Amino acid sequence: MTRLQDLVDKLQLKVKAYKRQSEEAEEQANTHMSRLRKVQHELEEAQERADIAESQVNKMRAKSRDAGKSEKAE
């Protein structure tokens, strides 16, 4: 009977250890997901800024071309 109790105790310790590992893994996963969301948000903002900058460059190029054409016409 003691041998059986020893086995039960060992199994309970293993279960506790696995549960702790599971909780630690879940914490790490939550941390990584939080970082991922932050980086995704930063990427979206950077892409927006790049799009705005590209649009401004295209407008300036168009103005430059138009100014060049009107100078040639004069």
Automatic annotation (TrEMBL):
Residues 42-74 are annotated as: Disordered. Residues 42-52, 63-74 have a biased composition (Basic and acidic residues). This is Myosin heavy chain, fast skeletal muscle. It comes from Collichthys lucidus. The lineage of its organism: Eukaryota, Metazoa, Chordata, Craniata, Vertebrata.
